[in-house]
């Protein structure tokens, strides 16, 4: 043993209407539909981003674990879990859900 007591692993359970999200790795420069490269530093308007849902509270109705969600990252709380940054938000702060389970979709796909 290395002298450090074993700490039990604790499972994280989200409460109420909270959602735990990991940012998708799509940050950085992007390309417009016309082929123009847009650098990551370009700030035209507030930009919504996609993230992957890792956990949901018991009051969350429209989002499930594994869904991809669209939201404004500037309005969320950040937490570090196992050295990796995650965001905590309310379900009402999510603008869209990309999922295979669709009932009232837009007809657009990622």
From TrEMBL:
It comes from Amycolatopsis halotolerans. Signal peptide: none annotated. Heptamer of 7 subunits arranged in a ring. It comes from the Bacteria. The keyword Chaperone applies. Keywords: Chaperone. The keyword Chaperone applies. This is 10 kDa chaperonin. Together with the chaperonin GroEL, plays an essential role in assisting protein folding. The GroEL-GroES system forms a nano-cage that allows encapsulation of the non-native substrate proteins and provides a physical environment optimized to promote and accelerate protein folding. GroES binds to the apical surface of the GroEL ring, thereby capping the opening of the GroEL channel. Belongs to the GroES chaperonin family. Gene3D superfamilies: GroES chaperonin. CDD domains: cpn10. InterPro entries: Chaperonin_GroES, Chaperonin_GroES_sf, GroES-like_sf.
